[in-house]
Structure formats: structure tokens, C-alpha cells
Specification:
With 385 residues, the chain is of the alpha+beta class. Helices cover 28% and strands 29% of the residues. The relative contact order is 0.20.
Length: 385
């Protein structure tokens, strides 16, 4: 496309690509995405997950949604600009990064830490998990992400007395760890209404023409069906045990047991989350962070947010864009450290039968070709005007 990239490798086979397309003004917009994907088991899929096959009007494969589809839309657009001699309204910085599906240590973190100058002038950024269509009764909404929950991946360790499995238990590390994990799994985190979710609720009320009871948001999420999925995971902190490791023989009581927990906390609620986790762990289980990142947010009442919404409506006059907070996390956390306000905006028009959330890290991940073409047109309106 005639764009000179900067290519750097933070570790073996961990390659990132950054390029700047000069615009009419030096103020820059960052479009970032990740090149890596999570694993996939071919036997579980109807079509091989690494085939990229187009069947039934969809591109199938691991990463079709998360997030090679978005990178493909971006590349298609900038190649078309090169053919037509189009310059964007402002500088556009493209950052295709390694390692987002782990911690970003070899991708976005490395880029921010070692190649900070590549992002000079960037004030806003767009990336995954927003701008897609959701069919509701009588309306088609497009959630545009204005924030995400923070990340606290933790390694828990219980230490006890090693010994023969036939003897009465003295201080069993496995039992202590299991009790702590059970307390974490059973804990009901209190509902907290953050500003981003409050803005979403207000917008949904306008779209649906009905009041959403803020005093019973958990029940309201279930009642509202698809509309409720936009906020049900974003009204409280969460902590899910995901990995266990202990022992080496059935008749040996190990002295140490280890577990991993995926913790997520709402913007502004990190300390509450950690205080609760420490109380649930008890005195015999220690924690250390595998990865911890704060919850970034961007203003839903900004002129840039309005431009994002306008670009969607220009291509789909029936669209009802709404602000939204992601339950998971993205590389936006790394760029927030540079003062770059991140929005989730990877525009897609989806068919009603596709479960967008279910395809993230799920089997049979796919995205409609027409939906990708729609996204290219939306990005063109956003960036070239």
C-alpha cells in the first residue's frame, strides 16, 4: 500500500508492525489490534480453524472476530486509499501487535516502553470489541466501548506440612487452597453502577422506550435478554478460578498447592476488589500478580465519540449507537499510560443468528463477509472525512 512500516521483534516470533499514514493535520488517531490468537482444537470445529475458508457468506477461522477481521478491514481501507490517492483527515497510526492474548508484555507493553515515539500526537485510539450490531426488539443497537474492566490475574499459593497420605491431616495445603477457592467461587460481588454503564443504561432506556430499574440490575439484565448481555458482566467485580496444580503421587501429601484466578474489577474499584480477595483467601493462602492492569475509560460525551456514532449511522440509518463497557480487557490499557483515550470500535454488521460474544475464544468463530465490507465503509467515513 506504499506505507513504510516499522517492524520490531520483542522476542522470538513476537513481531509487531507500526506505521504512520500522514494526514491533513498532525494530530493522530491510533488504530491498534493484535496479531496473535488463542489456540483452537480442529476436531471441535465444523471447518478447520486455521483455514480462513469462506463458506455460507462468512470467513471462518480462529481470529475471524478476535481480531484478524478488524485488521483485515483496516488493511483493505488503507490499500484502497493508496489506490485512490486519499489522505486521512488526521495522521493515522497503525499498530498491529503481538501478545495481547497473554499479557501484552511482548506486544503493546513493549511498544509503549521501547518505541514510545511512534505514538507521538495520538490522542484517541480505536480497537476491538465495539461498534458491532446487536438486534433488539424493534431496534438495532451498536455498542461503542468507552471503557473496560481492570485485570488482576493472580497466582495463589498454599503451604502446609508434607507427609504420607495415610496419616491424619495436619496442615494440608491442597485442602486449604480448595477451601479458599470455594470461598472465592461462591462470593457474590456487590453490584456497582459505574459512569460508563450508567450511560449505557440511559441509552438503552431511550432505545427500548422503557425504564430499567437500577436497584435490581441483575434481574433486569436477565429480563432484557440480548440488551441485558451488554451490562450483566459489567455491574460487578469477578474472580474465576481457572488453573490448579498440586502433588505428584496419590499417597503423598504435598507441601505446596498452587492455583490461578482470573480477576476483573470495575473502573474505580481496584482496592475494593483486592481487599475482598485477601479476606476470602484467609491467612494461609498468599497471592501474587501474574498480570495486573487498571481499568481505562474514555468519555462517552466527547466529540470523538459522536463521530464514531455518526460514521455508523451514515452507513446504517437504522443504527442506534450506545456507549458500552467491556467485561474483558484489551491493549488499550497499555496505551492509556500514554494518555491515549481508547474506544472499542471495530464496526461490523452481524446477522441476528450470530452470537458475537460466544465466538470470542469459542468454536466455529466466523464473521460475515458483508459485515466486514460494512466495517470498511464505516472506517472510511470516520477517518477520511
Amino acid at each position: 500500500a506504499g506505507i513504510e512500516p516499522v517492524v520490531f521483534e520483542s522476542a522470538e516470533r513476537r513481531t509487531s508492525v507500526v506505521a504512520r499514514i500522514p494526514g491533513e493535520t498532525p494530530e493522530a488517531l491510533l488504530i491498534h489490534g493484535h496479531l496473535d490468537v488463542v489456540p483452537a482444537e480442529p476436531a471441535d470445529w465444523r471447518i478447520h480453524p486455521f483455514s480462513g475458508e469462506i463458506t455460507g457468506g462468512c470467513v471462518w477461522g480462529r481470529g475471524a472476530v478476535d481480531m484478524k477481521g478488524t485488521l483485515s478491514m483496516t488493511l483493505a481501507l488503507v490499500r484502497d486509499w493508496a489506490r485512490r490517492g486519499v489522505r486521512p483527515r488526521r495522521d493515522v497510526v497503525l499498530a498491529f501487535l503481538a501478545d495481547e492474548e497473554a499479557t501484552g508484555e511482548y506486544g503493546s507493553r513493549h511498544a509503549v516502553r521501547r518505541h514510545r515515539e511512534l505514538f507521538d500526537g495520538c490522542t484517541e485510539a480505536i480497537s476491538e470489541s465495539g461498534g458491532y450490531s446487536v438486534e433488539l426488539p424493534g431496534a438495532r443497537v451498536y455498542p461503542v466501548a468507552v471503557g473496560e474492566r481492570g485485570t488482576a490475574w493472580m497466582r495463589l499459593t498454599a503451604r502446609g506440612v508434607a507427609g504420607h497420605g495415610s496419616r491424619p491431616p495436619v496442615d494440608n495445603a491442597v485442602a486449604e487452597l480448595c477451601h479458599a477457592l470455594s470461598r472465592i467461587a461462591a462470593h457474590r460481588w456487590p453490584v456497582r453502577l459505574t459512569p460508563g454503564v450508567a450511560a449505557l443504561i440511559t441509552s438503552l432506556e431511550d432505545v427500548l422506550g422503557e425504564r430499567i430499574d437500577r436497584d435490581r440490575l441483575e434481574l433486569e439484565a436477565k429480563r432484557l435478554g440480548r440488551a441485558g448481555t451488554l451490562f450483566e458482566a459489567q455491574i460487578r467485580n469477578s474472580a474465576n478460578p481457572t488453573m490448579l496444580e498440586a502433588g505428584y503421587k496419590v499417597n503423598v501429601v504435598p507441601g505446596t498447592a498452587v492455583a490461578h484466578v482470573d480477576g476483573r474489577f470495575l473502573p474505580g474499584h481496584r482496592e475494593e476488589f483486592l481487599e475482598t480477595i485477601d479476606r476470602l483467601l484467609g491467612p494461609k493462602v498468599t497471592r501474587e500478580f501474574v498480570n495486573v492492569e487498571d481499568a481505562p475509560s474514555a468519555p462517552p460525551d466527547s466529540p470523538f465519540f459522536e463521530r464514531l456514532c455518526a460514521a455508523i449511522v451514515a452507513e446504517d440509518p437504522a443504527a442506534r449507537p450506545v456507549p458500552y463497557v467491556m467485561s474483558g480487557g484489551t491493549d488499550a490499557k497499555s496505551f492509556a499510560a500514554l494518555g491515549i483515550r481508547g474506544y472499542g470500535f471495530a464496526p461490523l454488521m452481524l446477522t441476528p443468528d450470530l452470537d458475537y460474544f460466544g465466538m470470542f475464544h469459542g468454536v466455529d468463530e466466523r464473521v460475515p463477509v458483508e459485515g466486514l465490507e460494512f466495517g470498511v465503509r464505516v472506517l472510511d467515513r470516520l477517518l477520511a472525512s
